[in-house]
Amino acid sequence: MGIQKPAWLEALYTEKFFAGCSYHETAKKNEKNVCCLDCCVSICPHCIPSHRFHRLLQVRRYVYHDVVRLEDLEKLIDCSNVQAYTINSAKVVFIKKRPQNRQFKGAGNYCTSCDRSLQEPFIHCSLGCKVDFVMKHCKDLAPYLRRCNTLTLGPDFFIPQDIADDEMTNETPHSTIVDSDEPMSWSSSSSGSENMSMASTDIVRKKRSGLYVCARSMNKVSDEDMASSMSRRKGIPHRSPLC
């Protein structure tokens, strides 16, 4: 007796994608567009941290149907004789059947399950069509399955900003490890006060001639600044001579 369909294949065929995630109802970008092959469930981008060590397969949308990249799917199962389509320079394969009623068939290739017109030499229009054809005629899917221990998402997969921020906050940025037997001591009060005064130097905005001029606080004004400000004073007005 041949091997039955693996659990991940059943999940890929039966799970509902591009629906809102029930665990992240209030989050943005919560459409379930990833299939976790180890848990056999559809997940959204916000679920990725909980499945980061699992095999993840991204599901895309093309003409209102679910598709996956051919490059990713070939790591899991033999996709020969399945017609692929090009989306954004990447070849994709339809997951489910796309039945098409035809009263009359002309010359050419047609799908073994859907009677859909195909290009040569393809005979299956989707992954589901090939799996059903193999199970019906060969009774054994094992020769077509491939061993895949790791499967990660592509570099173009969109990760929401809040997830990236959370991963950054979980880390300890700018941390320093001091390897010394002596205890750490505070610096002198004079140097500490200088550092505090430099750090607390604020920016004062003064309105002059309708423009805002940025300057340091008044106790930090240099002699050159004072001289330049004095030179801008108005001169003494002179009376015009009498005629």
Strand order in the largest sheet: 4-5-7-6
Secondary structure category: alpha+beta
What level of helicity do the residues show?
Answer: 10-25%
pLDDT < 50 stretches = 167-221
Global morphology: globular
The main β sheet shows up as: 4 strands, antiparallel
Strand content: 15-25%
Question: Tally of extended strands?
Answer: 11
Mean pLDDT: 75
Oligomer: single chain
Element pattern in H and E: HEEEEEHEEEEHHHEEH
**Ends apart, CA distance between termini:** 126 Å
Counting DSSP H or I runs of 4 or more residues, the number of helices is: 6
What Rg, in angstroms, do the CA atoms define? Answer: 35 Å
Organism: Dovyalis caffra
Region (Disordered): 171-199, 223-243
Protein name: B box-type domain-containing protein
Pfam families: PLATZ (PF04640)
List the helices and strands and how they pair.
Blueprint: H1 7-14, E1 34-36, E2 41-43, E3 56-58, E4 60-62, E5 65-69, H2 70-73, E6 85-87, E7 90-94, E8 109-110, E9 117-118, H3 127-137, H4 161-170, H5 189-199, E10 204-208, E11 211-215, H6 223-231
Antiparallel strand pairs: 1-2, 1-3, 4-5, 5-7, 6-7, 8-9, 10-11
